[in-house]
Structures are given as structure tokens and as C-alpha cells.
Amino acid sequence: MRARVVAALLGTVLALAACGTGDDPTSETTASTPESAETVTVFAAASLKAPFTQLGTLFESAHPGSTVEFAFAGSSDLVAQITQGAPADIFASADTANMDKAVEAGVVSGDPANFATNTLTIVTEPGNPKGITSFADLTRSDTSVVVCAPQVPCGNATSRIETATGGDITPVSEESSVTDVLGKVTSGQADAGLVYVTDAAAAGDKVTAVPFPESADAVNTYPIALLEESQNPQLASKFLEFVIGDEARTVFAEAGFGAP
Amino acid sequence: MTSRSESRAGLPGWIYLPAAVGGVFVILPLLSMVLAVDWSRFPELVTSDASLQALALSLRTAITSTVLCVLFGVPMAAVLARSTFRIIPVLRSLVLLPLVLPPVVGGIALLYTFGRRGLLGEYFEAFGLRIAFSTTAVVLAQTFVALPFLVMSLEGALRTAGRRYEAVAATLGARPTTVFRRVTLPLVLPGLASGAVLAFARALGEFGATITFAGSLQGVTRTLPLEIYLQRETDPDAAVALSLLLVLVAVAIVVAARGRRIAGAL
Fold this sequence. Notes:
The complex is a heterodimer of chains A (260) and B (266).
Chain A: H1 2-20, H2 25-32, E1 39-45, H3 49-62, E2 67-73, H4 75-83, E3 90-92, H5 96-104, E4 108-118, E5 120-124, E6 145-148, H6 153-165, E7 173-175, H7 178-186, E8 192-196, H8 197-203, E9 208-210, E10 220-227, H9 233-244, H10 246-254
Helix pairs in contact in A: 4-5
Chain B: H1 4-8, H2 16-36, H3 42-46, H4 49-82, H5 88-95, H6 103-114, H7 121-126, H8 135-161, H9 164-171, H10 176-187, H11 189-205, H12 208-213, H13 224-234, H14 236-265
Helix pairs in contact in B: 2-14, 4-8, 4-11, 4-13, 6-8, 8-11, 9-10, 11-14, 13-14
């Protein structure tokens, strides 16, 4: 009996280990980053995954011999990891608040530069069966709406729009990340959700996006900065210049990001 | 399973070293967390409205899940331990699967079963029953991950207890139900108690399946682990304080379980 309990506990440890390996971006990068002079390690907000991966490939072909390594995670997680000494050359945040935290912690070298903006959009099930056409429709009682919790950047933007419009959404769930909001809509659990324009673009025909003018009340700005502990500041600066340059602008525009 | 002669035989001396390393490995992180607590803010952080609602919801749902685990887990364990059908070993592996699955996988599986577009969810929806984003969804997620713990530990107890007394009771003319109620269950009561405690502890700590399947709303689906995860975004101090609260509840369960196990042995 006791042996079985031990086996049970072992099972839990195994299960924990299984879900632990997936969400630790630092282990990935540290394992695959040799102390080479030609590698730039970029810690970037999860919402930047698609355009940054593309920019990395473009940069590598423009600078033969260089490698760009990415760790994508929530901005606040990344700040925590950088301040705890995770090896990174560049930090790209999904909002200015988290970049401010990094600056305050003294891990940023020089001034952050803004390179993109993002706004919220309503997403509904494909075809918009509930006929949602405005922000006010989200306050209807027959509509189940999922939003981000106010503690995370997308939820903060949601609260700002609610304050600006005076409309008060009663959500069925306040998720910890924008991908969870999108997931609840694409899986049909909720009628509508508030996500970033870029998430809606990435979801393609799994959702119908309903843009609303009030979204202009809450524009999220993405800053990028070189880090104090950078092992390769020269190449890192080149990548940073590339991200805020014109070529990158087109890549961001295609993914739905606005100009800063 | 441990016989008395074995435990009296004494241990080889070297075994204490790896045992101590393992012990430190478990205890040290908990200690580090206690040291990181901002004690001046601790009372205020753990008694905030959001924290108390999360704690109350956690206790309420974990208790409900444990009751469900006992209601369904006891018959399941009895079938697995006593039935002689050929398919039993296969069934056992399937039923114990949630033990090794990452909880988030459990959440996705539940979503495709009880969600609005799910296998059964569609029918529930037709009857006006909606499980998504309700406290019921939290209980389902917790029961799903906790049930194997109870089944496994009770099945072990049933096998250890053997069938001698059951056979005697049957020859004396007791019906199967009477044997089960008057002989089998009392024999394995300590095993059932520790299985229930394990299930309760697992339900209390459940995170992955809940956040995937039930969502997160204060007082409805946001249990203590989800509240900790969310607080971490803006207020790491609050996350640490709430983590300590969860550890304290867990310690209370372990202590209570130990007391009960001794009582059972007496």
C-alpha cells in the first residue's frame, strides 16, 4: 500500500516534469547558445513570435555566420528571468510597463526604442452567429465574453477601453494570457473575446474579427532595448537597428502590428 | 507491503546520504519561499477579498471532488482488485492514465468532452446545462486528475487485505453486498482514508486542467493556484504569500492524514 502511494507520488513528479519542460524558455536558449561571438539572444514577448522568427531568418541571411536565438514568453516572466541573470542580449516587451520594470531594475543599456503598436479587436466564432457589431454588444446579457485579467497587458487595455466608453463587460472568464482568451473562442466555449489584432490575424478563419473604433483608446506600444549584460553588444545593436528599421516595418504590418 | 521483519532488520548506513540529499531537495525550495515572504504585508495579502474567495473556492471544490472520487473510486478499486475479467489490466492502465498525463492535456480532453462543442457538452447544451466557465467545470477537472490517486491507493489496500475474511463471510451465508459493506470496506478503511487525502491534496493543487478547461473568474473558477499564477504577473510578493498559504493548507492535510492513519492502525 505504501509502495503504491510512493508510486503515485512518483507519477506526479513525472507529470510535473512533463509539463515543466515546455514552458521554460531560458533552459532552451542556454542549452543551445554557445559562447560564440556571432550569436544574439533575444528575449521577446510571446505575441512577437511570428514576426520575430521571420526577422531572425532575414537577419541571419543578411549577416552570414550570425545566429539569432529567441526565447518567447510573457513579458513579465521575461523581465523576471532577465533580472535573475538569464543570459540575453536584447529584450522586446509587449508593453511599456514591463520595459519600465526592466529599466528600473538596471538591466537595460541605453534607452528603449518603440518599434510597433497593437490594439484590441473583438473576435467571435466564425461567421459571427451572435451578430456582434460593436463594443457595446459585449455587454449584452445573452453573450458570453472572455477577456484578459486586468493584471496582464491585454486586460489592462480592456479596462482602459471600459473606462473610456463607460461600457461594463461582465466576462465569464478573465484569462491570464491573450492566447487563452483566443483559445476559448476558437474552441467555441465563449461567444466572443477581446484579443490583439495580431492574434486575430494569426488565428485566420478560426475566428471572425470585429474591429471597433473605441480600441484606439488603448494602444499598446512595444519597446525594444539592448541589455546591460549583453555578451555581444555590437551584433545585438545591429539586430536592434534592423527591428526598428523599414524592412522590419513591412513584416510587422503584415502580422497586423501598427507603426509606433 | 512492508513487513515488520524487514523494518527491524536495519538499514545500510550509506542509504542515509541519498535520502538526505533527496530530503533537502524537497525542503530547501519550500524554505527559500518562506524566507522570501514579505511578512509586513503578509496578513493584508492573504486576507484580501480575492485571496479569501480563491481559498474558499479551492476548499469547496476540492472537498466536492474528493466526495465524487470516493463515490466512484471505491467501486472502481473494488472491480480492479477483485474482478477476474481479462480486460481488467487494460482498464487499470487506462484509468490510471491521468497520473502520468500533464494536467493541461487533461484539460484539453475535458474541453472536447464537456465543452460547448464537446462530445457530451452538445447534449448538455441542448438541455440548457452549461458547464464551461462554471464551478462544476473546476470540480470535473479536479476529479479527473484526483480519481486515479484514490483508486490506486485503495486497490493496493484491497489486494494487501486479501479475500480470506470475505470468503469466510460468504460461506457463513452473507450476501455479496453485506460482505462488501461489513467486511471489505472496514478492512481497507485506513487505505481509503489515505487515498481520499491524496485525492484531496491533488484536487487542491490542480492548475493545468482547470485553467485550460474552466477558465478563471474570481469566486467562480479562480482557485488558489490560479490566483497565485495571476498575482505573479503584477505582484510577486502576493504570489509568494499565497503560495505559503497553500503550503500551510497542504501541511495541515498531511498532518491530519497522519493522525488519521495512526488512528486507523490502532
